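User: I'll paste a sequence; please echo it back and then give the predicted structure.

Assistant: Echoing your sequence first, then the prediction.
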Amino acid sequence: MPTFLPWPEIESFHNIRKFIRVDPNEWYLAVEQLSGTSIVEYKAKVKLHGTNAAVQVLNHNWRDSGPSPIPLVVQSRTSIISVEKDNAGFAKWVMYNDEPWWFGSKAMNHIIYGEWCGPGIQKGVAISEIPRKVFAVFAARPLDGSDTLIIEPEELTKLVHGIPDVYVLPWYEHSIDINWRQTDEDLTKAITPINEWVSSVEENDPWVEKTFGVKGTGEGLVFYPTSTPHLGWESFQNLVFKAKGEKHKNIKTAAPAQVSAESAASITAFIELVLTPARLEQGATAVGGFDMKLTGKFLQWCVKDCEKETQDELEASGLSWKDVSKPLSEKARNWYIAEAKIR
């Protein structure tokens, strides 16, 4: 039975700041997470607005009649998928191109992670306006149980060379060193360039324009730790962070990257803060679109997603999940029903 190997949830900058608890007077608390050095080198890749996907390319299990019929395992963000139970047609596309995956690439015994994106998957972004769906690869792991994570574009290109409609995301033009031991004030100044870069990407996705000649909105950037002490799967999960543009924020933060969680002065303000158009649209996409029969499923998704992702904002606002869950669910329900009537 294949094992599902999920891509981790990517947190925002302030979540990482809180997690590693770096403070000039509490350095000892962060040594393990930061491998003994507080300065982390980061490179970024454009964050594409599609749907998370992955392909496990397994060992050939040769028999007299040929290779095993199950050498590929196809994944969405949340589960193993199939042609019969697909996600935006990704499994169907992989199986249609199964021979290049088996024989044309060097990805055997790896899981290849990327974004399945293009027309019909999302909307309102440049990547949705390209001529066809593509698989944009951003990382890979060998299926040997090691801590290895492959993120260098050159190495990824070798793994997937020859597979139709597979692209490898390059590094963004700018990089940054973050000293997690800085004070909040100094760290806020240090990350100012990140917010400028994200605004530029939101205005026009540079990778989509260069690759497909399409200008338009980008979602943001994902920052990968690339300094030698911080390479590998475990360090990546501890230190990677994302920064989204205004149109794609699931929480109405003051800036794409900030040191502290956003706070709200009331329950109503909190719901406005976390129940953004981007989150609501994401929920509708996750449950299969707009249909009155899907209202309950949509509400479950919204409540679960908000509870999971807004604990820091709740704490900063002096609220509990019990305070906000009912009014949040009511607002999400009203939005979904209104949209279902007009779409």
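The first helix runs from residue 13 to 20. The chain has a mean pLDDT of 91.
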